[in-house]
Specification:
- α9 (about 180-200) links the parallel β4 and β5.
- The chain is mostly helical and about 350 residues long.
- The chain is globular and about 70 Å long.
- Strands 1-2-3 form a 3-stranded parallel β-sheet. A two-stranded parallel ribbon has the order 4-5.
- The longest helix has 30 residues, at about 325-355.
- The chain contains 14 helices and 5 strands.
């Protein structure tokens, strides 16, 4: 359950967040450090899909790798219009949420992307090695630009290069990704090879860590992924939703006219989405969930799934609300994380500058 993790994470004293408590690996060492990098946009409090698809695995990775960086990628967020006040609030809310979910600044580097200027500097270098046709074929560009009156901004077009810079700046070896991000990681791998071939071997080729959880779908449209930008308020479950709201959203979840609980994403996407959520929250396999649910009709099953989600999120929700009131502490976590990230990025970027000819 989440409660013990939350308690353990929040016991660290503020003094232990200092830079001196983090051992920096020299980028000049011949040994390749297994290093994980991943980022999340500052959309405020995460939803159910964010938690099950990414954050939960982030927490587990802390016990598997000795060097991990998790970034709140605010630079990526402005590829679409943002209110500056709301963005500042969302950054702190996402920080509070990650801490409450179990991200521990003593085990991983949690930082705000824009506080480390080397990200954008390396992105420029890498953009000069990346062709426009290569970016134009990425599915996210086609999908996001199609909904705009004009073709889309330059930032929206080139943000996959910034993603590559995020990863390569730390010589990251592993990247947790969902299936929809595989092509972006492949771009990073290609850019790393191009740089290595042109300037000399520097970057390891990062490998994907694929999430074991299937993508969580919208409760109102089970053919689309769950999203905070969904205009249907009943489609997305937030971690901080009240028990009453969670129950209502699952009761209104789109299923079909067959009452039996089965898992068949092709012909029964709605019910299958509920099974996916149930399995992910409980840690059971899909087969175990279906077996346990024999004899339940879908109306009763919706209630069962809602109850498991409510129980899972209750301690996390309480911790988020507590941390949101500690804005100074949240800012200190981000500042200390940025200093740690800079200590790692600095020597590596110095190598990059020398190879390119800037110094």
């Amino acid at each position: 359950m989440a409660a013990p993790v939350v308690k353990r994470v929040m016991r660290f004293p503020v003094s232990k967040l200092g830079v001196g408590s983090f051992r920096v690996e020299s980028s000049l060492a011949p040994k390749v450090v297994n290093r994980v990098f991943s980022g999340i946009q500052p959309t405020g409090v995460p939803h159910l899909g964010n938690y099950l698809g990414a954050i939960e695995s982030w927490v587990k990775l802390q016990d598997e790798y000795s060097s991990i960086l998790y970034s709140i990628v605010d630079l990526h967020s402005i590829t679409v219009p943002q209110d500056s006040g709301k963005l500042r609030q969302n950054i702190l809310e996402m920080t509070a949420s990650l801490l409450a979910c179990g991200i521990n600044p003593e085990q991983s580097v949690l930082f705000q992307q824009s506080k480390v200027s080397e990200h954008t500097e390396l992105a420029w270098i890498l953009s000069c090695l990346t062709s426009m046709p290569r970016l134009r074929h990425l599915p996210q560009w086609k999908m996001k630009s199609s909904g705009q009156k004009e073709e889309g901004s330059l930032g929206l077009f080139t943000y996959p290069v910034l993603q590559s810079a995020d990863i390569l700046l730390y010589k990251s070896t592993h990247v947790p990704v969902g299936e929809d991000q595989i092509q972006h990681l492949e771009l990073t791998q290609d850019v790393a090879r191009i740089f290595n071939n042109h300037y000399g071997h520097l970057f390891p080729i990062p490998k994907a860590i694929l999430s074991e959880t299937k993508k969580i779908k919208s409760l109102r449209n089970p053919t689309a992924k769950m999203s905070k930008s969904d205009t249907q308020t009943l489609a997305t479950v937030s971690i901080t939703d009240s028990p009453e709201d969670i129950l209502l959203k699952f009761r209104k979840a789109v299923t079909d006219f067959t009452s039996e609980v089965t898992y068949d994403p092709e012909t029964r996407p709605g019910v299958s989405n509920l099974v996916t959520v149930h399995a992910a929250v409980t840690g059971l396999t899909v087969e175990e969930v279906v077996h346990q649910s024999k004899g339940l009709d879908t109306a009763r099953y919706k209630y069962v799934v809602a109850e498991t989600v409510i129980e899972k999120f209750a301690p996390i929700k309480n911790e988020i609300e507590r941390l949101k009131a500690e804005k100074g502490f949240l800012q200190q976590v981000l500042n200390c994380g940025a200093e740690k990230a800079k200590e790692l990025a600095g020597p590596i970027y110095h190598e990059i500058r020398k190879l390119v000819g800037f110094s």
